Amino acid sequence: MRQEEIWDADVAQRYDTPGRGMFAPEVLGPVVDRLAELAGAGPALEFAIGTGRVAVPLAERGVPVTGIELSPAMVEQLRTKVDETTIPVVVGDMATAVTGGKHTLVYLVYNGISNLLSQAEQVACFRNAARHLLPGGRFVIELWVPELRKLPPGQQAVVFGTETGYVGLDTYDLLRQQVVSHHFRFDDGRHARVFRSPHRYVWPAELDLMAQLASFELESRHADWTGSQFTGESRSHVSVYRLPPDRLSSSPVAADAPSP
Q1: What tens digit of pLDDT does each residue of 58-88 get?
Q2: pLDDT tens-digit series, residues 224-239
Q3: DSSP 150-169
Q4: How far is CA 229 from CA 37, 113, 226, in A?
Q5: What angle (nearest 5°) sits at the alpha carbon of residue 60, between those of residues 63 and 211?
Q6: Residue 79 burial (CB < 10 Å; 0-12/13-18/19+)?
Q7: Rounded distance, CA 97 to CA 154, Å?
Q8: pTM of the full predicted structure?
Q9: Cα distance between residue 205 and residue 225, in whole Å
Q10: In the beta sheet, which residues pair with residue 156?
Q11: What distances in angstroms separate CA 143 from CA 33, 48, 61, 110, 260, one per listed residue?
């Protein structure tokens, strides 16, 4: 199934959980604080902007935000919150689509880069970020660390979350670096609703090499948005990559740039 088919109108309408989960103030607040700090006085671009979970509060902080989003249904949900003038969005693939502007910050949060299912697409995403940045600009990625140490020989699945009415598990294809996330939600009856999404997992070292191919340097890596130390036990990371300040700027619609 293609990503644009996964993120359909039904998912878009159920995506937001105001005040809970990834929309909880204690989760979302540090994300917006850190991104506003990194953007400074310049504009920001969000890859996979979705329904505006991060973009809307970031724009409310005075940071001009533009988005790229593959799913028209997710953009439609975003439009119930803000109009096109407030947060412009280009509908397209974050690995290739262009906005026509330059930014001080490009960001891709909540494991978004793993939605690109090949190494080539993920490298292209880095290059597309560089294409949209001013010299010295930053590309921020939030990504989980694969939990392969939890897989004993012969086992292909890891439970990553359980709570009342919910079970989440990942199934791994180690040969292809592929993961399918399964989210099971139960009501009072005998049936469950399931949502599945495919991903390509990436180790931090591989991510750093992708960054080098796009002329980025790793500026910092922390275990979360509040700046906790990243260690071998960390389950996720926030990595900040930066272009050299003296890097020549080129138009995002130059001849070698892919079309949206």
Answers
A1: 999 999 999 999 999 999 999 999 999 999 9
A2: 999 999 999 999 999 9
A3: G--TT--EEEEEEETTEEEE
A4: 19, 22, 9
A5: 40
A6: middle
A7: 40
A8: 0.89
A9: 20
A10: none
A11: 18, 14, 24, 6, 25
Asked if residue 204 lies in contact with residue 145, where contact means CB atoms within 8 angstroms, the answer is yes
Q: Is the pLDDT of residue 254 over 70?
A: no
Determine contact, residues 185/161, Cβ cutoff 8 Å: no
**What helix, strand, coil percent values describe the chain, rounded to 5?**
30, 30, 40
DSSP 54-88: THHHHHHTT--EEEEES-HHHHHHHTTTS-TTTS-
Give the tens place of pLDDT for each residue, 140-165.
Answer: 999 999 988 888 888 889 898 898 88
Domain ranges of the chain: 3-145+203-242, 148-197
Please give the single-letter amino acid code of residue 160. Answer: F
Q: What is the spatial distance between Cα 238 and Cα 224, in angstroms, rounded to a whole number?
A: 6
What are the structure tokens assigned to 157, written together?
Answer: 């699945």
Strand partners, 218: 241
Contacts of 130 (CB under 8 A, 6+ apart): 139, 214, 215, 216, 243
User: Phi and psi at residue 79, in whole multiples of 5°?
Assistant: -70, -15
**Alpha-carbon dihedral 172, 13, 143, 256, rounded to 10 degrees:** 100
Residues belonging to the chain: 260
CATH topology classification for 3-145+203-242: Rossmann fold (3.40.50)
